[in-house]
Amino acid sequence: MLKLDYTYCIDYDYDQKYDCESNGCDVEGICRCGVIVNQRIKNIDLSLITDEIYDELFPSNTKSQKRSNKLDQLFYGGEVVDKYCIYRILVINGACVPNNWSINIIGGYYGDEIGGVVMSDFMYDKICEQISKLKELNTLSEKIKYTLKLEYGFLIDDLSDCDFELVSIYKNHIDFKKLNQNHIKNVKMKDLIHYSTTNYILPRGVVRGTIDNYSIVDGYHRIIGSSDKIPFMVFKVKK
């Protein structure tokens, strides 16, 4: 089971109310009456949460665990592939939505304190179930197909029997003429900030075709949000 609390991956804020006179703080000389109100989540760092979940699932603090992780790297791509799939599972289940998290408040000696920022029970159960199944899969193709099925509910026909390979490409290798042009026009760059090169370093999606003529199968926003000058990783459909 994964942990519930990812406080240090989430930027939150709150206000405090005091009534020192009624609570005797002025007499004692120590304020113990602070009450937290208007607690809110400002930003959720899915990349940090992904890293923490990966470290929970694939620890590397023993020789046997390190050896197992190296074998995973050889067999299907290891860390980068698993982190990509974990990130997608988080997005699919709404982990980027503030309302799916709770800020717990606990009583302390000096008034209210933040006791943690935790996932909703429903989201937590779904993420645990799906990541557990992901970990049971042994090949790159199984993991990518599983993640695509979670996101879309099905696999398009030509992906059912294909394999995938992890490759590095540039943005100008994509033929954007094959995409829905109205969709491109409606994309707002402010919505892609979390997919900038500095914020997102995982593979950006799935493509098919050949270099300079790739078409996007999945990952439109992540690819659009990439730099024009820096290469990025994608999963290429391999027939």
Strand content: 15-25%
The main sheet comes to: 4 strands, mixed
- Average pLDDT number: 89
Estimated radius of gyration? 22 Å
Helices and strands, in N-to-C order? EHHEHHHEEHHEHEEHE
What is the helix content?
25-40%
Number of domains: 2
- Number of helical runs? 9
Distance between the termini: 36 Å
Description:
The chain is an alpha+beta fold. The chain folds into 2 domains: 1-139, no CATH class; 156-239, Conserved hypothetical protein from pyrococcus furiosus pfu- 392566-001, ParB domain, CATH 3.90.1530. The chain has helices at residues 20-23, 25-28, 46-57, 63-76, 79-92, 121-136, 140-152, 181-186, 220-224, and strands at residues 10-17, 35-44, 101-108, 111-119, 163-169, 206-208, 215-218, 232-238. The strands form 3 sheets. A 4-stranded mixed beta sheet has the order 5-8-6-7, covered by helices on one side. Strands 1-2 form a two-stranded antiparallel sheet. Strand 6 and strand 7 (215-218) form a beta hairpin. It is elongated and about 75 Å long.
Topology:
Layout: E1 10-17, H1 20-23, H2 25-28, E2 35-44, H3 46-57, H4 63-76, H5 79-92, E3 101-108, E4 111-119, H6 121-136, H7 140-152, E5 163-169, H8 181-186, E6 206-208, E7 215-218, H9 220-224, E8 232-238
Parallel strand pairs: 6-8
Antiparallel strand pairs: 1-2, 3-4, 5-8, 6-7
